[in-house]
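To whoever picks this up:

The parser on our side crashed when reading a file containing two proteins. I've narrowed it down to the boundary between the first structure block and the second sequence. Both blocks are reproduced below exactly, byte for byte. First block:
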Amino acid sequence: MATVLKSGDRDKHQAAAQNASAIAGFNLSDLADEGRTRLEQCRLQVQEMLAVTVAQVSFSLLGHTIKAILLLSILMVLTEIN
């Protein structure tokens, strides 16, 4: 919002300056709030991605462990037969 002031009206100059900085402060505050909101959303998304990755790695390790146990069991049975 633009305000045109005539020279010599000091009170109006001060009021206009206060209004302008109040508007600028409000816009910066909104921008800061939006930034904080987006950062929180990103933080939550990264946490979710990390949890999924940990679950996938754990499942993969479990699969390899089960395979190793089965192979050892087969080897034990084969050595007992011979």
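<<boundary where parser fails>>
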Amino acid sequence: MANWEKLIEEHYSKKNKIDEKTIFELIEQALIAEGYQDSEVIKNYPSMRLSTKGTKKAGGEPYDEDPPKARSKSAPAGFGVLEEQVDAELDAKVLAATKEFVKTSSPDVNLEDITVYGDPKLRKIGVPTFLRQEAGLMDALKSTLQDRFPDATAINTLLATDKSTPIGYVVKSGKRNLAKYVYKPFGKNINKGDIAEGILGAALYVKFMNPESKVTDSAVKKVLEMISVKPDAEKDNPKKVDKILKGKNGVDDISFRVALSTGNYEGLVDPKWHSELSNHYKSAVAYVNGEAIVDEAMQQEMDKNPNVIEVISDGVSDQTGTKVDVQVKVDGKFTKLGSISLKAGSKTMGQVGSGNWEKLSGLLSDMFGIKPDSTLEEPWVTAVSTRDKAGVIAAGQAVYNDIVGELAKDPAIRRDKPEEQVDVIQSIMYGVRKAATGGEKGVLLVDFDGGDYKVLNFDDKLEDVFRKRENFKLGVKYTQSSSGFPKILIRDDGNNETLIEIRMRVEGKGETIKNVRHYVEKTRYLGKLLDIAERLEEKESQEQK
């Protein structure tokens, strides 16, 4: 074939290959040629609209603004089909990998409950709540995405709102998202704080049963397995469970009683929750192995005679006026660690759970030695009684602002040296402790923190910590959340750290509220200082022996 014949053949071969883009261009050109934008329907479009614009007015014409006369250009036929599609093949692979992991780690789970759903741009994988933090799930998902997108520029981890818990991945090609999957929990949620009380109680029971041995998390779980088969004193109450495990260590009678809501009890004794509660097990074990459960005087008394030792984790009985979560009694007397208020990873030290003016005023008076201006009571009570959200927020802002304004006038706040601010520090720390313990004496504050624990010491040693803290300067600040809810921050201005936050929130949807709450919350920075105070006291106690 001559060269010119070959060239002609290649030319006609290319002309016969028309791609999708070319088709749409040809359609657009034909429509323009027909003058589709100049049709009578399009020209008369404004007169045929059923409504105009503007603010709706009660009792009058609904709108008072004319619509725009111009109409945006219509898209050529066919463009509506160019939408993102779900990658069914990838969904199937992700689902298979997830089910394979769940089948291996938790064979009791109904695999039919695990599904992939959601928008094509964000696919959600429904998994049981107790599995949502399993590292194996994340590994299974990432491996599947790596196989599907070997040339991706990045597979980035997606985090939950706490900014630390991995929940999924997004696959990137440059700036473009190729796929995005997150794990979404379904099923029953649990209150980890309440369950932690039961875990700590079980750990204390193990310690009393074997005082010379180190407690292990497997021993704690064995105790919970044993108590799970005991009779329930609340068997006729579907909302509560109350069980007792009894044992003997030599001549001593030892018992462990756990009373929790049914859902939290199930979370305590069901092994499927072990992984999610692993840090609480570690914290409880570290605590009972690291602290003297009874002081020397009580130990000497215990050595003389047979004893009755009771460990009680009661989260459901009528405990009006008490904030004790775990009790330890020897012959009816509290041990050194006999009354424990457990803060299982929670920053909340206390709260006022109502809109009652006297309770709010009392909380602020306990914290700062100052009561809100009496003229603020009426607007507060009126806003709360009418359940007006905007009114409650405004009244709360006025109260919080008033307290901060009064504190700013205190000469001690304006002093530069911690020793000259000690009176204010004492008052604030007294208020925090009262919020946390309800003012009960002898209550030990314990914080479970990431698999470890801290004993929160608000006594005199804390003042020493503040005095010796480099650059310490007490400060107070008023601020608001993005929604306008007021906050009072007690700060170490010298080190640019917040110690305590008092904040307000409301319950209820829309503009009508159901309740108002005021929270007293510690920061990790204060937790660190409280733990230092406890170690100083322990050291001094050892030196005096």
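After patching the parser it read the second block fine. The two ends are 111 Å apart (CA to CA). Residues 75-83 have pLDDT under 50 and may be disordered.
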